[in-house]
Every structure is written in structure tokens, then in C-alpha cells.
Amino acid sequence: MVPTIYNQIDSNRRKTIVLMIAFSLFIGVVVYVLVRALGYQGLGALSFVGLFLIISGLINLSSYYWSDKLVLGLSGAKPIEKKDNPELFRTVENICIAAGLPLPKIYLIDDPAANAFATGRDPKHAAVAVTNGLLQRLDDLELEGVIAHELSHVKNYDSRLMSIVVVLVGLVAILADVFFRMMWWGRGGSSERRGSGILFLVLGIIAAILAPIVANLIKLAISRRREFLADSSGALITRYPEGLANALIKISADQATLKSANNATAHLYISNPFKGKEAKNWLVRLFSTHPPIEERVAALKAMVVP
Amino acid sequence: MWIPLLVVVGAIAIFGVFVWSLYNGLVTAKIRVAESWSGIDVQLKRRTDLIPNLMETVKGYATHEREVFENVTKARSALLGAGNAKEAASADNMLTGALKSLFAVAEAYPELKASDNFKELQDELSDTETKIAASRQFYNSNVLDFNTKIQVFPNSLIAGTFGFKSAEFFEAGAGEREPVKVKFE
């Protein structure tokens, strides 16, 4: 199949759906096993899960709601007006017109490392930030590619998607934790410890150990797929995938780690801000929020512009 | 005895929901086409608004380039008075050509070229051209979405009943594809 921009966008969306279905099923099974192992069934189980879902939601959604302020604060970004940097402002404006997005708040980060990110729960509450290092290194077409990628994250509601994923991962982590505490301190709820009880106990232990890790891996796989989607959506906006491809090559060649790189926000940046950690090791790649640069560049260069 | 009846009622209900959501989807897509068309207009207006300022700046330095000024003014009036898409497109093309001549003329006046005002206007106009192109691209992407929705099967069967017609892509007119002639006085 010809790897046109449209085909790649469709393929990335399909793969996201597959991942989300697999993820939901996985969460469902794990939660069921853990809750049964704890001795809850039926309506009691539902309210038990519901309680912890709400807790996970409260913990994680607060960061979602204020994700833009949070990340911007952590990175030391300063808002700019048109007169501060007319070229950057115009670039963002024009990409927004081509994408049909309202203009987000624009920020500049004083950091020599080249990177950029976009946050916001929806296009009306979005912000995009770039570093000085990025503006210095990239030319116009490359900068357009990067901005288009970042705005595509906003347009595709990636913040929202990842928040849902994070809440569910949090639920599994909390339940696993509760399970181990209950194991330690004795069982709560109605215990039906017949043959099935022992089975679920064993399954529960396995789940409580492995599930948080597996859930995390699926979350990272979803994050990587959304990066590919942002690449292809951005290419559709600029109609020039080489721009972003060249920008990614330049950014990855830059070895300096971003000063404010932080595990909580790493997935928002265009390129893994923890430089040097992008090893060839498949295990490391499994735990990465971004796909390898070579794969992204290859996918971009393969797009036949319609 | 009730089962066939339930099945028929169920099928009609499902069909009804399908048509309802399809109709709403088509209406939404059509409104987006209209909105993005007016988005192009917004950018075109930006350009026509910048021109009087530009003319005054140039006139301040290059007082004798009457023909070029007249061409720009004529083209601008034509664009403001355009009644439909075709007229707008050809008037837009005329204006682009006239502006190119104007900027070519400015080359001969070093004081004008050096003036900050002129440089700023040049930047603004160049940015406006980019914005016009961006808004056209967005318009075309909405037309693509709308046209696809009404032409695929089974939507095509229903869209015709409701009177939805394909929208036109914004294409360069035959005149626009030819290279623009720049006149040096």
C-alpha cells in the first residue's frame, strides 16, 4: 500500500483503537482478578472498583486539567507576544489557519537544547512552547514542521487520551497496592475462600506484580503511536514531511539534555528530552515515550505528498 | 408472533438513527465548508486593508509611478466589488500581479527600500499571502471531508434525497497558472 500521508494517518488511528481495546480488556481482566482475589464479588466489587477509580481520577485528572500550567511552570517557559518574536508568532498563526485551530498561547523556553512541546486539554485551552535552542538551529520549513507536529497533538486530543490511559494505569497500580496491603494485614470484604479463592489468590499475586508494569508498557506503546500520528497529521498540515524529518535529525544530533527534563512531562516533548538514553537496546526502547528518530524520519520520508 | 414485529420495529429504529446521525454529520461538514470559505475572505480583506497604507508609503518616495498606482487601485476595487468566487479569484490574481509590479518599482528607490515602514508593510503583505494560502488549504480540506461524506456508499443514497451537493475545491483559475508578468518602467 502506498504510504501516503492519508494512509499513514488512518493506520495510526486504527492502531490506536487496537491498542485502546487491548488496553481496556487488559484493565478489565486485571481489575476483575484483583478484586476477586480480595474477596469481593458482584455489586460490592463494583463499588470497590468505583471508589478507587475515583481516587485515581482525582489524583491524575488534576494534572490533566492544569497540565498546561504544570508543564509550563516546570520548564520555565515565558509567554511571548507578537512583537517579542514575530517570526515564531507568524509561523504558529499560519499553521493554525491551515489546521483550523484557534491560536494557542505561545511560550519561549530559555534553554540551549532544541526541543518543543504542546499541552492543553482541547484546542481552546492549548499552549505551545519552543526553546531558544530550537529557534537557533532550525530553518523556517523545519520550524513549521515542528510546530505542525505539536499543534497536531492538540488537534488530536492527545492530552485527553493520555489522561484516560493514565487514570486507568493509576487504577491498576492502586489496586495492586491495596491487594498487597490486604495480603499483609489480612483479608477484607466477604471472603469466599473455596477452590476458586485459592486460584484467584494466585492469579491476584501474579496480576499485582505484573499488571502495573504491563499497563505502563501499553501506555508507552499508545504514546509512541500518538507520536507517529502527530508526525503524519503535521505533515498533512504543512504538505512538506521533509521539513519535520530534517528537524528531527537536527534535534537528535543535539546531545545536550534539556535542563528541565522530567519524567512526568517527557512524553509531551517532540523528542525524548533525556538525550543519551535513546539506546539501541530493545528493552530501553520498549520503555520509551517516543519512537526512535530513525523510524520517524523513515516514515516521514516515505510519505508521498498527495 | 411478537418477534417478527419487534424485529421490524427494531430495524426501522436503527435505520432511523443511522439517517439522523448521517444527516447531522453532513450538516456539520457543510457548515464547516462555509465557515472556512469565509476564513479565506478574512485573509483577503487583511490584504486589501494593508494596501492603502502601502500605497501612501510608496507614493511618499516614488511620486511619478502613476500607472503602477492606478493598476493597484483598480485591482483592489475589483476585488472589493467581486460578486462570486470566480470574480474574486481573477480580481485576486490581478491584485497579486499589480503588487508585484509595485514592489519591483520600489527597487529603484533606495530610500524607500530602507524605510522601516516599507519593510514592515512588505513583511505583513508577504505574511498575508501565506495566510491566504493556509486558509485556502483549510477550505479544501473541509471540502474534501464533505464531498467524501456525501459520495461514499451508503451515504450517497441518502445525501441526494436531502439535497446535499458536492462543494467546489478552491482551484487556481486558468489565468492564475500562467506566470505573472512584471513590468519595469
CATH C-level class of chain B: Mainly Alpha
How confident overall, as mean pLDDT of chain A?
83
Would you count the extended β strands of chain B for me?
Answer: 0
| Biggest β-sheet: strands ordered side by side in the sheet of chain A | 1-2-4-3
- Count of helices of chain B? 7
Structure commentary:
Helix content of chain A is 66%, strand content 6%. Chain A folds into two domains: 5-67 and 159-212, no CATH class; 79-157 and 224-302, Zincin-like (2-Layer Sandwich). Chain A is elongated and about 65 Å long. Chain A has 306 residues and is mainly alpha-helical. Chain A has a four-stranded mixed β-sheet with strand order 1-2-4-3, sandwiched between helices. Chain A has helices spanning 5-37, 42-65, 67-75, 86-99, 132-137, 140-155, 158-185, 195-238, 241-253, 282-286, 293-302, and strands spanning 77-79, 105-109, 116-119, 127-131. Chain B is mainly alpha-helical. Chain B has one domain (13-177): LemA-like domain (de novo design (two linked rop proteins)). Helix content of chain B is 81%, strand content 0%. In chain B, α1 (2-61) packs antiparallel against α5 (116-151) and α2 packs antiparallel against α3 (85-106). The longest helix of chain B has 60 residues, at 2-61. The interface between A and B is small, with 10 and 13 residues.
